[in-house]
Design goal:
This protein is mostly helical and 195 residues long. The chain has helices at residues 20-24, 27-40, 44-66, 69-90, 95-111, 118-133, 139-158, 171-192. The mean pLDDT is 88.
């Protein structure tokens, strides 16, 4: 679990600051967490979402600073924790089904070679479509978050392929855009579930 991980263009050697842009771009998650915390204004769901975004900030920063397997696992678990909690609030009436359905979708897409994040993209698109069909005004918020996430996921996938042209890679853009995605999803859930 303490093995060195070299999975991104920017990292060229072991060491604490081997990925400065990838490490610093995690500040987007901290900004998102603070903004959601302030928006929540004491709302428990909003505060938990903000705390989970803060956890993503810490875990991802530690992973990009240390580049070890255990830190990679912590990063993935933090992201999964946010996604599972958020899914529960997309449709409070169907909350009992949201997390198991999302986990099943994630496992299936990962087994088919789509990675761990394709399920999140499909989930965002499906939820936006369900809300649009129900004429819920918030469908556009999830559609925009899905579009930003699609761009973010594309940049993440391109990182290793562009090393020869862009030595720092594109992974830092994945962080910046995902900070926006987590903010948009959390903001929408806080506003949608306000009494």
């Amino acid at each position: 679990m303490t093995d060195y991980v070299d999975g991104y263009c920017e990292r060229v050697a072991p060491g604490l600051w081997g990925e400065p842009l990838n490490s610093l771009s995690n500040l987007a998650f901290l900004v998102a967490a603070v903004l959601v915390w302030r928006l929540a204004n004491g709302d428990r769901t909003g505060r938990v979402l903000a705390g989970l975004i803060g956890l993503v900030f810490v875990a991802s920063t530690v992973f990009h600073l240390l580049a070890t397997r255990w830190a990679a696992v912590a990063d993935s678990v933090a992201i999964l924790g946010f996604m599972l909690f958020a899914r529960r609030y997309w449709s409070p009436r169907h909350a009992w089904l949201a997390a198991p359905a999302f986990l099943a979708l994630t496992v299936v897409t990962a087994l088919l070679g789509g990675g761990l994040y394709l399920g999140a993209l499909i989930g965002l698109a499906a939820f936006a479509a369900v809300l649009a069909f129900a004429r819920d005004a918030y469908w556009t918020h999830f559609a925009v978050a899905g579009a930003v996430f699609a761009l973010s996921l594309s940049l993440r996938a391109l990182d290793r392929d562009v090393c020869g042209y862009v030595p720092v890679g594109t992974h830092f853009l994945w962080h910046l855009l995902n900070g926006v995605v987590l903010y948009l999803v959390s903001r929408t859930l806080v506003l949608k579930n306000r009494p």
